[in-house]
Every structure is written in C-alpha cells, then in structure tokens.
Amino acid sequence: MSETVIVSACLLGINCRYDGANSLDESLIEQIKDSHVVQVCPEQLGGLPTPRVAAEICDGDGFDVLSGRARVVNIEAADVSEQFVKGAKEVLKIAGLVGAKKAYLKEKSPSCGVNLIKCGNLEKSGSGVLAALLSKEGIELFAS
Ligand code: SF4
Questions:
Q1: What is the CA(23)–ligand 1 centre distance, in A?
Q2: Which of 20, 46, 72, 80 is most buried by a 10 A CB count?
Q3: pLDDT tens digits along 88-138
Q4: How many alpha carbons lie under 13 Å from residue 28 in its C-beta half-sphere?
Q5: Residue-level pLDDT at 106
C-alpha cells in the first residue's frame, strides 16, 4: 500500500502563493508519484485570501510564533500570526485524519519553510509555522 504524504500545494502547481502564482517542482512530483498525496496550503486554510499580502517572521521563527514569542507580520504591518497558526493546526488535523507521517514542504516560506525562512530580502535559519507544528508532532519533514 502506498504511503500518504502531505505536500505544499504550490509545489504541485496550484496557484496558492501570496502572489497568485505557484512553485511547481516537477522533480518532487516524480519523487512522490507512488505516494497518496494530500495537498495543503496552510495560509489559505488559515483564512487568508489569494493573492495576499506577503508576510514574514523577523523576531524568531515558527516555533517562536507557536509559543507566542514571535509574530508573523505582513508587509503592511498587520499581525497575521493567528491565521498562520490556525492554518497550521488545520493541516495537522488533516495529517491525522489521513495518517500522514511525512510532509514535503516549500522552503523559505513563513508557513512551510523547513530549514529556512525570510526576513525582508534576507534568508535565515528557522522553520515556518506549519513546519514547526508538524515537527513538534513527529511528522518527518522534507524541504523542496
Ligand atoms: Fe501555501 Fe505553503 Fe505554498 Fe505558501 S509555501 S503558498 S503557505 S503551500
């Protein structure tokens, strides 16, 4: 039986990015072609529109957002932490419902980044909010 995996929807060509575009990764699609794929966009699941104002985490990373020590702030200075945490929790719920133990996530996103996120034009080490929550729950993460 094929395993069930969670995948950032933008990597599969879904136009769910903040700018209404996608981040199609054809090599990833080849890599997971035998898996049962469940595509998610945590920012949409958190209630944000598409397109939406770009957001970033500058005072920490996703783990810090989950514990209330940092915020996700968009470039219009609005705090969107609540929507990001809500979306991450919805994805965790989905992962539990479908029995997914692995997730392939878009690097450098404030939600999906596994090893890297961004602050302004700078990349920095750290996890996005979704990656942090899934990691805390023992789901194996792969950056794409
Ligand atoms: Fe949605 Fe994550 Fe892709 Fe951003 S990186 S568009 S939150 S799936």
A1: 9
A2: 72
A3: 999 999 999 999 999 999 999 999 999 999 999 999 999 999 999 999 999
A4: 22
A5: 98
Pairwise CA distance, residues 129 & 117, whole Å: 10
pLDDT tens digits for 33-73?
999 999 999 999 999 999 999 999 999 999 999 999 999 99
* Residues within 6 Å of ligand 1 by CB: 8-10, 16-17, 41-43, 106, 109, 111-112
pTM: 0.98
Torsion sign (Cα): 109, 110, 115, 118: positive
- Ligand 1 centre to CA of 115 (Å) is 15
Angstrom distance (rounded) from CA 67 to CA 69: 6
C-beta atoms surrounding 89 within 10 Å: 17
